[in-house]
Amino acid sequence: MYNPKSMKAEEFISHQEVLDTLAWAEENRDNTALIDSVLEKARLRKGLTHREAMLLLDCSIPEKNQEIFDLARQIKLDFYGNRIVMFAPLYLSNYCINGCVYCPYHKKNTNIPRKKLTQDEIIREVTALQDMGHKRLALEAGEHPEMNPIEYILESIKTIYGIKHKNGDIRRVNVNIAATTVDEYRMLKEAGIGTYILFQETYHKESYEKLHPTGPKHDYAWHTEAMDRAMEGGIDDVGLGVLFGLERYRYEFAALLMHGEHLEAVQGVGPHTISVPRIRRADDIDPDVFDNGIDDDTFAKIVACTRIAVPYTGIIVSTRESQACREKVLSLGVSQISGGSRTSVGGYYEPEPENQDSSQFEVSDNRTLDEVVNWLMKLGYIPSFCTACYREGRTGDRFMSLCKSGQIQNCCHPNALITLKEYLEDYAAPDTKTKGDALIGTEINNIPKEKIRLLVSDYLKNIGQGARDFRL
Ligand code: SF4
Ligand code: SF4
Fold first, then answer.
1. Nearest Cα residue to 250 out of 61, 12, 18
2. Based on CB atoms within 10 Å of each CB, which residue in 121, 210, 281, 336 is the most buried?
3. What is the pLDDT of residues 11-42, one digit of tens each?
4. What are phi and psi of 79, to 5 degrees?
5. Which residue, judged by its Cα, is nearest atom 2 of ligand 1?
């Protein structure tokens, strides 16, 4: 039985409720009056239920679809302005005991070289990431109690936060590791992680069990209830996501929003971020065997409807997507992107030889971080390396209430300018620096409060003279 307040996966992601939602939305996909009433509610910018959002996703009326896209763009602007936060993944180890059939790190794949970074190798990798300009990382590791125990993850986090190279430092480490116990989540919290990210892959239980035939990840409830355990362990910010292409996208979309509603209902805070990866080609994996792939237009609509349904949740798109696709979805709601990513274990310090490729998936956007930063500015965005909230204790419900009141913009925009200035001083190519300084010169006038404007001007001057790490 569907119950968003239940702590049982099969009750807060009720299969029947998903099916009923899909049937109801399909039945009403050309019901103009109903779609209008949902759009009217959406314009209040307080979000939508999974049923309402599903109706917008299914809507088949061209003029209404135009309204949906326009509203997503407007909500994106209202809540996030024109800033885009940058991050990079760091793969620590690809040893894994699970059997996920869509991932080349699955246990039975003997083609792929298995690697695990030593602490010295982590220092080399992170130094290379700092030299690119990154300040925010997402740690990735396979599930392997002997090779990647929690102690290894904790030691790696400590190593990463301790690396101060030239003007560089990693200021926020987000973590994407397998579902674990409340005690281990508590340890991650104490190690100072930002967001705990765990992709559901698919919410469809039967498919989930087929796609994860072996290993601890086979347990649907253990995996799906992980965010509740993470929050019980004190982690304030959690990031959801599904791997689009494994199951039918409509099912995933409705269930993903139901998961967010559950977290809001029982933990008082919805997801901090939602990632929207699509399945990609990788060693020993052929995406053609998954027949639920989605085209770029459907992908764009999913991003737009997610933006409308959960205006306060960051949306993340990785380098799995091409430059053209990323450009399309940036305006529709995406607030964070990766740049200059390597999806292998090692590879930032020194590219891997071709016959030793340990990548989890093929990257579509192969540009350097500087090229991505330059491109974003050309499109009118402010690339931001901000990590201020987590460091100022603005997490969990405190963060969400600032988001909901729209006040967070008073921090995001100035912090974007401050951290972009650091990037320009320390890492940018000449053309990027010229463009960036001009952008900051214009954008500073868009800070409404004079007091903040003067403070930021002061910070920018100090950064030009060598000082670092200012934040609001
Ligand atoms: S998706 Fe994660 S758990 Fe599954 S095989 Fe890959 S690394 Fe292991
Ligand atoms: S101020 Fe907070 S919400 Fe805004 S970009 Fe920085 S860390 Fe993110």
1. 18
2. 336
3. 999 999 999 999 999 999 999 999 999 999 99
4. -95, -30
5. 142
DSSP 246: S
For a pocket test of ligand 2, which of 411, 419, 472 has the largest count of ligand atoms closer than 8 A to its C-beta?
Answer: 411
Which ligand is closest to the CA of 104, given by its number? 1
Ligand closest to Cα of 92 equals 1
What residues are in contact with ligand 2 under a 6 Å CB criterion? 85, 384, 386-389, 408, 411-412, 415
Compute the distance from residue 162 Cα to the ligand 1 centre, in Å: 28
In whole angstroms, give the CA distance from residue 413 to residue 256.
29
Q: Any idea which residue has 């963060």 for tokens? A: 399
Residue with tokens 């601890």: 216
Tokens of 172: 């926020």
Query: CA-CA-CA-CA torsion for 309, 310, 314, 318, nearest 10 degrees?
Result: -30
State the residue for tokens 């994407």: 176
Rounded to whole angstroms, how far apart are CA atoms 145 and 31? 52
**What digits encode the pLDDT tens for the residues 423-460?**
999 999 999 999 999 999 999 999 999 999 999 999 99
List 125's β-bridge partners, or say none: none
Q: Whose CA is nearest to atom 5 of ligand 2?
A: 412
Extract the tokens encoding 78.
Answer: 């209202």
